[in-house]
Amino acid sequence: MFNEEGRRLAANRGYFGIDPVICFDVPKDGSYSVHVQDITLRGGADFVYRLSLCTGPRILFASPSVLQEGHTGTVRLYGWNLANDRPGNSSLESVDITIQAKEIIPDTRPAVHRITARSLSGPEFTYRHPGCDQPIQLGITDIPVMTGVASSLPSEAHLIPVPCDIDGQLTKGTQVDWYRLEGRRGEVIFVDGLAERIGSQCDLQVGIYRLKAETAWEMESLASFGDSPDPGGRGFLIEHLDPSGRWVCPANGFYWISVQNLTGGLTTDPRRKYRLCLRREEPGVTVVARCPGKAPAALNIAAGGRASLDLTAVRHRGMSGSIRVSADDLPTGVHCPDVWMGPNETHATLVVSADPDTAPLHSELSLTVEADGRSDKVHGSTIVRSGTPRVHERLTQGIPYAVSGNQDFRILADAHRRLDHHLYGDLKVVHSPGSIVDVHIEVERSGSAFPISLIGTGVPHQIQNVTALIDPDASSGTVSFYLPPTIKPGRYSWAVSAHTQVERNGKPVDVTVISNPITVHVQPAAFRVEVDPFAVSHAGRGETIVVDYTVKRINGFIGKLHTELASPGIITDVAGLRGRGVTFVGQTENGKLQIVVNDDAPVGRQKFLRLFTVGVVEDEAVYQGACFLNLEITD
Predict the structure, then answer these.
(1) CATH number belonging to the domain at 145-282, selected among 2.60.120.260, 3.40.1190.20, 3.40.190.10, 2.60.120.380
(2) Whole-Å CA distances, 301 to 293, 335, 354, 381, 514
(3) Which sign does the torsion angle of CA 52, 58, 62, 66 carry?
(4) DSSP code for 329
(5) pLDDT per residue over 246-263, tens digit each?
(6) Residue 389: CB partners within 8 Å, gap ≥ 6?
(7) What is the pTM of this model?
(8) How far is 378 from 365, CA to CA, in rounded Å?
(9) SS3 at position 219
């Protein structure tokens, strides 16, 4: 802020994060100028900003920042020009207001600001203060909200109920707030501290203690919750460092909770606010859908083709189980198979398809998320700013889509093709940790043929993505994914993306399409197959090699094990190779598999070759496991 003589009167580089705020007391009548510049002295078409100037009330934050739904609450607003009986002042002011229960209604329309961790932390409502041109967002909770119950000493700590949502302020740099609760042995409490998610500058740490000696008030630390980085999503700016976690009460008795700001400070600052939410372990989840990529896009589906949406899940209060997303009320000719995010997964790919004879239409996609017996609607989002490593997005009121045009190249994926075993007959595919998922791809195309590159899309983070190639004269292929031994049982969904060229108007055009989603149900494993790391990896035509391997029984399995050489969809009769199966009985774990390389064996790396093992219970092949075999054939 400069006066007419060019003298700088006020400046700010960041009041809340990197957004600056200046409260300017006008010293005298005259002209003043506001200068805005990038702090790194850069610029460009995407260096956008918004400048707000006002002489009326300006609200910075509120305490409490959350109110209980259905209950009238008192809120203290902090800001400038809030008092009616005196002129504006550069010092922070506060005013108490009462918000009626009928006003505490979740917003039905999403806010137009970018998606942050706060916007996905729970429902909010908009409060508009008289004379203020900018409303504020206040959270809504279904549990009691408590204010003014913090104590500076553990001996004076107030007894708080569980569940509750506590609103507090660490105005002093070295301040520690104490609370006391009564717990029962085996009781599980989910602790969630909110600071960054409500716009506060605190770096919270929450601790749980019990008394060692009541006379001296010596405390024993039982748990500490500090920075717990949220991995965020593909492009979503939803990471935060707020502490959270679950705590199991070790015994009946009283316990103390401390809340402190690790960054501290030498000054008193009411902006250092926080929320401490204590709940029973009641898992919840919020799912957001958007079009893939880092540029603004919409869901446009060609008749006979498919389009995809990226799903990102924000798990709340210890939610770790599988998540199911399904579509509701689709028009005739439009399909959207259910997809699953496995335990602890936060991403998936949703695929929407249209039949070849579907007439052009536009509508909105209604998606439902289900987890742990609860259901909710999936939020839509759109990109509002691109060109940066992490795009800025905002929530949308719906998920619009349209069907238009035609698709002349399609692929169909199938991960459940049955297997023909020469000893145990027709086998249903069983997926478990330490096994392989074979995704068979059928190609539908017209005109000239080009090679097709395959790769997984929306693959769970624990599964390594792989690629495969379909020759120009082939109409099918396979891409195989290894399920690591550490993956948790549950349902997982992903799809396969295919890139090729098609001839249009006499010229080849690059085309990328997506398959239907495949869902695998990962069941607990009975054994684990591993190839010796020093096993032979090269063999010439006409040679015979021996591969050392182990099959370790786990989870109480004691049955017979039989291992064969295999490739996608084929057991024993692998092209150009002959393997002699090995059977383990009793406690045998180590074996040798002999492989004869035929004179007509295909030269090169044997794609997706593996050792395939079945676990037998009462002469029935019940369990399956596999491990890739790295083998290259030479002349």
Answers:
(1) 2.60.120.380
(2) 16, 11, 7, 18, 11
(3) negative
(4) S
(5) 999 999 999 999 999 998
(6) none
(7) 0.85
(8) 10
(9) strand
